[in-house]
Design goal:
This protein is an all-alpha fold. The chain has 2 domains: 184 residues, MFS general substrate transporter like domains (Growth Hormone, Chain: A, Up-down Bundle), CATH 1.20.1250.20; 195 residues, MFS general substrate transporter like domains (Growth Hormone, Chain: A, Up-down Bundle). It has 16 helices and no strands. α3 packs parallel to α5, α7 packs across α15 and α11 runs antiparallel to α16. This is Solute carrier family 22 member 18-like.
Length: 442
């Protein structure tokens, strides 16, 4: 900087029209210095929080709030639609519309996270949730209920939390970190219906949904305050440039053709469809076939939430420390197969309580491990997109499952869910086992 000042002083002494080239070179040098300074500032801004564990706690707290708000809405939504005169067919259309929007929005949301950072997309998810809950709370017609589904396009708070955890963890610890998000999400599954039920009991169903909107506003403030703009680790090694375009079809094609990525998505779709079918028809089965009252149904859902906490919060870590990911996938499919066999022979509520144990644990292992594998197959700057496709796969299942489940339930009964699930999951387990042995021999 002292040399620059000296040259400027000499230029002033020489007159305003002399040594113009020297001035221009100095200006360009200053511009380069300022650009380097800006880059350093950007790196400092994009660096993860100095205290990693505080950031992890913040992400889990955001996940609890997102889950609680969502399940407050789930608990009272059927009663709100009924009070507005919505029949079962229209209710099915509402559910399908939401699943279709989630299907379209998942990859877009993931790409936005890759481009603009974790804080931006978490704020976006909670904002969309707030808008959806608010419109439901003030809805006075079925048209407004359909309108309330539109923000669901980018309401992917759980995906946003997974994106942050993926950014902050190494390959070795990623499966455990992603599994532990189920701990906080499961806490929301337990708290949400309880909070919503109490507010609905003493006030109204719409007041419960409005409380979810208010809690979402608090979540937005929390994210802005405690989540850094970017959480992706800065690496000195050269990386493949990630496109700045939201819809870079060539980039998307290259990612989908990455070895192993397409296979994982196909396996998630095929193996997840039986569970999606059972889940979509679960409320009808437990009420019409097993005769559970609303209170018993709520207790059963809390029981499933507790199992989710145990499975994803502790079970995934316990298994992955003792088995590699390929063997864990085989174990997950075996557990699901066992659960579906129990479903086939279930004839009481007690049988259901036993049946869901292997099904929840197997499903948790399968979901976490497949997402962990996907994030390891692609460059770090594209992990948000592949997680978005993964969530879109679940949305596609939720779109197809109600129609398929309704046909199976009406023609063959609920036991058909168990038989189809057993065939699909046992076949997948056998295929993975044989494939792994062939690769080992090769």
């Amino acid at each position: 900087m002292s040399s620059v000042l000296k040259e400027r002083l000499s230029n002033k002494e020489s007159g305003p029209f002399e040594n113009r080239s020297t001035d221009m070179s100095n200006l360009s040098g200053q511009s380069g210095d300022s650009q380097e300074s800006n880059k350093e500032d950007d790196l400092q801004e994009t660096s993860p929080s100095e205290n990693k564990w505080l950031l992890i706690v913040a992400v889990h707290f955001c996940n609890v709030m997102y889950s609680a708000c969502y399940w407050i809405n789930v608990g009272v939504y059927p009663y709100i639609t009924k009070s507005l005169g919505v029949d079962m067919v229209t209710y099915g259309y509402l559910q399908t519309a939401f699943a279709a929007l989630q299907l379209l929005g998942g990859p877009v949301y993931g790409r936005l996270g890759d481009m603009f950072g974790s804080r931006a997309v978490l704020v976006l998810a909670h904002t969309c949730g707030c808008l959806m809950y608010f419109v439901i709370a003030v809805a006075n017609s079925s048209a407004m209920l359909f309108f309330s589904r539109i923000p669901g396009l980018l309401m992917h708070g759980a995906q946003g939390a997974q994106m942050v955890m993926t950014d902050m963890t190494s390959h070795k610890e990623r499966a455990v970190a992603l599994g532990q998000l189920g701990l906080s999400y499961g806490a929301g599954v337990i708290l949400g219906p309880f909070i919503g039920g109490q507010i609905a009991k003493y006030f109204s169903q719409k007041a419960a949904v409005m409380s979810a909107a208010i809690l979402s506003v608090f979540a937005i403030t929390f994210v802005i305050t405690f989540i850094p703009k970017f959480t992706r680790k800065i690496d000195s090694k050269p990386k493949q440039e990630s496109s700045t375009s939201l819809f870079d079809l060539k980039r998307i094609k290259d990612l989908m053709l990455t070895p192993g990525v397409g296979f994982i998505y196909l396996m998630k779709l095929i193996s997840g469809l039986p569970f999606g079918i059972f889940q979509s028809m679960f409320a009808l089965v437990v009420v019409n076939t097993f005769g559970l009252t609303p209170a018993q149904h709520g207790m059963f859902m809390s029981y499933i939430g507790a199992l989710m906490i145990l499975a994803q919060g502790f079970g995934v870590g316990f298994v992955t420390r003792r088995m590699n990911e390929k063997n864990t996938l085989v174990l997950a499919m075996i557990l699901c197969s066992f659960g579906y066999i129990l479903l086939f022979f279930s004839s009481s509520a007690l049988h259901l309580c036993v049946m869901v144990i292997p099904l929840v644990f197997g499903g948790a292992l399968f979901g976490v491990i497949t997402n962990s594998i996907l994030t390891k197959l692609v460059p770090p700057e594209d992990t948000g997109f592949v997680l978005g496709i993964s969530f879109a796969t679940h949305a596609l299942i939720r779109t197809l499952a109600p129609t398929i489940g309704g046909l199976l339930l009406s023609r063959f009964g609920y036991t058909s869910f168990g038989s189809i699930g057993f065939v699909v999951c046992s076949s997948t387990a056998l295929f993975l086992f044989v494939k792994q042995n062939l690769q080992t021999e090769a």
